[in-house]
Structures are given as structure tokens and as C-alpha cells.
């Protein structure tokens, strides 16, 4: 697959399905980071359009739609995939799209759990920074249930 040109959207083939990828911002120079946005589990990256537009004024931004969102094809097991599996899929997607580190990860809600799993798949030197926006942790589901029970 040839490199994805800034300003273009394409479908990147993985093993069983294709995912929508858009690169925005100025052309990336060697060793400059690229921002990866990981939205919450029930959200499209298109909900981050304002943030993407602002960031893309000065840096490259990698937007992707998880399986079943946007133009991305559904995965066979979309409803049962874990954060570890979603992180591994992101890792494969970056390799298939030829998007090398360093990365700055911006994540929201359940995207925070996916981001932490993604970090475990990579060397720490692959990252230049992280932004967690109302990010969940692995403890969120049990905390949420306890809060409802005591309300």
C-alpha cells in the first residue's frame, strides 16, 4: 500500500475487514509525531472534527474509524471485542497504513482503556505524549455499578 497522502481518506485492509483512515494536516517530516485520536467506544472519530481541524493546522493527525463506523467495514466479532483486541487492531492498522512512530495519543472515554492497551504493545519511546479526555479506566464499570446502587 502506498503512503496515505495528507487530506485523503482511504480504506486500509486488515485480515478480515477494511478500516477508514484519514490523514490531515501538513506533510509529516521525519521524526515529527502524528496525533492519533481514539474516540469512545460508541463514538465516531468524526465527532472530533473541531479538535482535528485545530490540530491539523500545525501537525499531522491520524483519524480512523473502528469497525462498523463511518466507511469502515464491520468486523465479524465487533460486539465482543475487548480493549486488548481493539488496541491490537490499531497497531496492525498503523503498520498496514505505514504510519511510523512517534505518536501523540488523544483518547476519550473507553478510548482511554484502548490507549493504555496500545501502549503495552509498543515501546515507550514510540510516544511523545498522551491526552486523556474524560477517560475511563479498567475499574470504571465496577465503580459505575456501585454508584448506581448507592444512588
TrEMBL record:
Q: Which organism is it from?
A: Cylindrodendrum hubeiense
InterPro entries the record matches: AB_hydrolase_1, AB_hydrolase_fold
Gene3D superfamilies given for it? alpha/beta hydrolase
A Pfam family it matches: Abhydrolase_6
Protein name in UniProt:
AB hydrolase-1 domain-containing protein
Q: Which residues form the AB hydrolase-1 domain?
A: 35-137
Q: Which domain of life is it from?
A: Eukaryota
